[in-house]
C-alpha cells in the first residue's frame, strides 16, 4: 500500500508550489493511471514516492515504511521506476549490462543475476539484443530495455512515466499485455503516468492532477463521461465522446453516459438501420 | 511530369556492405515528394523509417541508386561535401528535440545554428526572433533560460532552432511524443500552418494514425526496408484489411466506419476524420434530431 499524506512541494526558485496538500492512498495490486497536462505535478508526485525529491512537506509511507533518508533504499527496493526518456537512465555498455546494473547495486549473486537479466529481456522481447550497445537501439527498443531493467528488480510497485511513448502501436500493445500478465502473476501495483487514452482506459482508477492538486480520483468511465473536465485539464477526449460532441453540435440527441467504441457503433447502427 | 523536390530513385542502403556483417536497411526505394506537400511515413519500429530520413538529410549515402533534394544529387560515389550540400534544404526535428537545448537563453539557443552557418550576431538574432514568432513564442521568452520552461515550450524552442536554419523541407520524427493533448494539438497545428502559409514541405514520421489522417496529403508505408504501399491517405486507410494484415493500426474514425460497413452501412466516400464521419452519418440518423 502506498500512502501519500499532505504533500506540498515547491521547486527551488519557484513561487507556485508544484504540489499542494496532495493526499492519496493506493492499494496493493491496483492499476492507476496518473494523468494531467504537462506541469500538472503528476511526475513530481511519482518521483516523491520513489524518494527522488528532497525537502517536501508531508509524508510518504510505502508498505508500512515511512520514506526518510534512512529508509530510501529499502523503499526503492520495492519500486521499479521507468522514465520517459530512456536515454536518461542508460548506464551499461551493453543491453544486458544495463539491465544487470540495478541487480549488481543490490548485491544479487551472479548466477541469479544472469538468470534474472535473461528472463527480463525475454519478457520484453529483447533477448536477441542482449549484447548490443544501448545507443544503437531505436527509441521503442530502448524503452523495452528500460522496462526490463525495472522488472529484473522484481519490484512490488512499478511506476511508468510515459514509458511507452516511443513504441509503435503494436509494440505498445505488446508491452501493455506484458504488464497485465506481470500484474496478475506478481500482484504488482502499477502507476502509469500517461497522455494516452487507451492506457488510461485500461486502468482500474484514474488520478487526475491539475496545478499541483489532485482534482479527480475515479474510475475511467466516470471521467470519460465529463467532457468539460477533460477539456479543462488539457486531456484528449475519448474518440467516441468526440464523435458524440460533434453529433450533438449538429443537433443530434445523444445519451449522456459514456459509451465506448463498440457501444457507440451499436447505438449508431440502431439509429441508422 | 512535375519534378519533385525530393526524389529517391532505386535506392538500396546496406549497413557495413561487402563485409560478413552486411545487412540491408532499405531496398528498392522509390520515393518522391513535391514542394509544399505534406507526406506521412509510417511503419513499424525497425522498418527503415529512420534510415530513410538520414538519406534525405545527407547523413548517409545510398549503397546503390540516387537521392535528389531540390537541385543537389547524391550517389554512392558522392563526397562528404556533396552530402553536406543536401542538408542545406532540410531541417529535422528529432524525437525529444528539447534534450539538445544547451544555451543560457532561448534567443541564444535559437540563434546558435544561423551563427554557426556564418551569420553575424545581429542577423542571427533577427532570424531567431522570426523563428520564435513562427512557433508562437512571444518576445518575453527571449531572455529566459530554456530550462525553466514547460515541456511544450521547450519543444517550441527546439523547433524554432530548426526553423532558424530556414529549411525548405521539415522532417518531423514523432514530434508530439510526451506532450499532453493540448500541447500535441498546438504543435501539429503549427506544422500545418508552416506547411500551408509558408509553403514548407513536411515529412511526418509517426505512429499516430489520427495525425496522418488529419494532416497528410500522401502516405508511404515502409516494412522491412521496402515501400510496401503509397498513395493518398484516404486510399491507404480505406484498405483496412491490408492494414490489419500488416499490423498497422487505423484511425479510430475508419475503424468505426468499418464496423458500420460490416453491419451493412454504406459510405459513398470513406471518412477520415471525426468531422467527416459525423457529417456523413447525420442525414441518416432517424428521429434523433
From TrEMBL, chain A:
<comment type="similarity">
    <text>Belongs to the ABC transporter superfamily.</text>
</comment>
<dbReference type="Pfam" id="PF00005">
    <property type="entry name" value="ABC_tran"/>
</dbReference>
<dbReference type="InterPro" id="IPR015856">
    <property type="entry name" value="ABC_transpr_CbiO/EcfA_su"/>
</dbReference>
<dbReference type="GO" id="GO:0016887">
    <property type="term" value="F:ATP hydrolysis activity"/>
</dbReference>
<keyword id="KW-0067">ATP-binding</keyword>
<keyword id="KW-0472">Membrane</keyword>
<dbReference type="InterPro" id="IPR027417">
    <property type="entry name" value="P-loop_NTPase"/>
</dbReference>
<dbReference type="GO" id="GO:0042626">
    <property type="term" value="F:ATPase-coupled transmembrane transporter activity"/>
</dbReference>
<dbReference type="InterPro" id="IPR050095">
    <property type="entry name" value="ECF_ABC_transporter_ATP-bd"/>
</dbReference>
<dbReference type="GO" id="GO:0043190">
    <property type="term" value="C:ATP-binding cassette (ABC) transporter complex"/>
</dbReference>
<keyword id="KW-0547">Nucleotide-binding</keyword>
<dbReference type="InterPro" id="IPR003593">
    <property type="entry name" value="AAA+_ATPase"/>
</dbReference>
<keyword id="KW-1278">Translocase</keyword>
<dbReference type="GO" id="GO:0005524">
    <property type="term" value="F:ATP binding"/>
</dbReference>
<keyword id="KW-1003">Cell membrane</keyword>
<protein>
    <submittedName>
        <fullName>ABC transporter, ATP-binding protein</fullName>
    </submittedName>
</protein>
<feature type="domain" description="ABC transporter">
    <location>
        <begin position="2"/>
        <end position="236"/>
    </location>
</feature>
<keyword id="KW-0813">Transport</keyword>
<dbReference type="InterPro" id="IPR030947">
    <property type="entry name" value="EcfA_1"/>
</dbReference>
<dbReference type="InterPro" id="IPR003439">
    <property type="entry name" value="ABC_transporter-like_ATP-bd"/>
</dbReference>
<dbReference type="InterPro" id="IPR017871">
    <property type="entry name" value="ABC_transporter-like_CS"/>
</dbReference>
Amino acid at each position: 500500500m502506498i500512502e501519500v499524506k499532505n504533500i506540498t512541494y515547491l521547486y527551488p526558485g519557484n513561487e507556485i508550489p508544484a504540489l499542494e496538500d496532495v493526499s492519496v492512498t493506493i492499494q496493493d495490486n491496483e492499476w492507476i493511471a496518473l494523468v494531467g497536462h504537462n506541469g500538472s505535478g503528476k511526475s513530481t508526485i511519482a518521483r516523491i514516492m520513489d524518494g527522488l525529491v528532497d525537502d517536501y512537506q508531508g509524508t510518504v509511507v510505502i508498505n508500512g515504511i515511512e520514506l526518510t533518508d534512512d529508509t530510501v533504499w529499502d523503499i526503492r527496493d520495492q519500486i521499479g521506476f521507468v522514465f520517459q526518456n530512456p536515454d536518461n537512465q542508460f548506464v551499461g555498455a551493453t543491453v544486458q549490462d544495463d539491465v544487470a546494473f540495478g541487480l549488481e547495486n543490490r548485491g544479487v549473486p551472479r548466477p541469479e543475476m544472469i538468470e534474472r537479466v535473461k528472463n527480463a529481456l525475454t519478457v520484453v522481447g529483447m533477448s536477441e539484443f542482449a549484447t548490443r550497445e544501448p545507443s544503437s537501439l531505436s527509441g521503442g527498443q530502448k524503452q523495452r530495455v528500460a522496462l526490463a531493467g525495472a522488472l529484473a528488480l522484481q519490484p512490488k510497485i512499478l511506476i511508468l512515466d510515459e514509458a511507452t511513448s516511443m513504441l509503435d502501436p503494436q509494440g505498445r500493445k505488446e508491452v501493455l499485455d506484458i504488464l497485465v500478465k506481470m500484474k496478475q502473476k506478481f500482484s504488482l501495483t502499477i502507476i502509469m503516468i500517461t497522455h494516452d487514452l487507451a492506457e488510461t482506459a485500461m486502468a482500474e482508477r484514474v488520478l487526475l492532477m491539475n496545478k499541483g492538486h489532485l482534482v479527480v480520483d475515479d474510475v475511467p468511465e466516470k471521467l470519460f463521461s465529463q467532457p468539460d473536465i477533460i477539456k479543462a485539464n488539457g486531456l484528449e477526449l475519448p474518440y467516441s465522446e468526440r464523435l458524440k460532441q460533434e453529433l450533438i453540435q449538429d443537433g443530434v440527441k445523444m445519451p449522456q453516459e459514456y459509451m465506448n467504441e463498440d457501444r457507440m457503433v451499436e447505438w449508431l447502427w440502431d439509429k441508422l438501420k | 511530369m512535375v519534378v519533385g523536390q525530393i526524389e529517391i530513385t532505386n535506392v538500396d542502403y546496406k549497413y557495413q556492405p561487402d563485409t560478413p556483417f552486411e545487412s540491408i536497411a532499405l531496398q528498392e526505394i522509390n520515393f518522391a515528394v513535391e514542394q509544399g506537400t505534406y507526406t506521412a511515413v509510417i511503419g513499424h519500429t525497425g522498418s527503415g523509417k529512420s534510415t530513410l530520413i538520414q538519406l534525405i538529410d545527407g547523413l548517409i549515402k545510398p549503397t546503390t541508386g540516387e537521392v535528389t533534394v531540390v537541385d543537389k544529387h547524391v550517389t554512392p560515389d558522392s563526397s562528404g561535401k556533396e552530402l553536406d550540400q543536401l542538408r542545406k534544404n532540410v531541417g529535422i526535428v528529432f524525437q525529444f528535440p528539447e534534450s539538445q537545448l544547451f544555451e543560457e537563453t532561448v534567443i541564444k539557443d535559437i540563434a546558435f545554428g544561423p551563427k554557426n552557418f556564418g551569420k553575424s550576431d545581429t542577423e542571427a538574432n533577427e532570424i531567431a526572433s522570426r523563428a520564435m514568432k513562427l512557433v508562437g513564442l512571444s518576445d518575453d521568452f527571449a531572455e529566459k533560460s530554456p530550462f525553466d520552461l514547460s515541456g511544450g515550450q521547450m519543444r517550441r524552442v527546439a523547433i524554432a532552432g530548426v526553423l532558424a536554419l530556414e529549411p525548405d523541407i521539415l522532417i518531423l520524427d514523432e514530434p508530439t511524443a510526451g506532450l499532453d493533448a493540448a500541447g500535441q494539438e498546438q504543435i501539429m497545428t503549427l506544422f500545418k500552418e508552416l506547411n500551408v502559409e509558408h509553403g514548407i514541405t513536411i515529412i511526418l514520421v509517426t505512429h499516430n494514425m489520427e495525425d496522418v489522417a488529419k494532416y497528410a496529403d500522401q502516405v508511404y508505408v515502409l516494412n522491412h526496408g521496402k515501400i510496401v504501399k503509397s498513395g493518398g491517405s484516404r486510399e491507404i486507410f480505406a484498405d483496412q484489411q491490408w492494414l490489419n494484415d500488416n499490423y498497422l493500426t487505423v484511425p479510430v474514425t475508419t475503424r468505426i466506419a468499418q464496423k458500420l460497413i460490416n453491419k451493412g452501412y454504406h459510405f459513398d466516400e470513406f471518412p477520415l476524420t471525426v468531422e467527416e464521419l459525423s457529417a456523413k452519418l447525420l442525414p441518416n440518423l432517424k428521429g434523433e434530431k
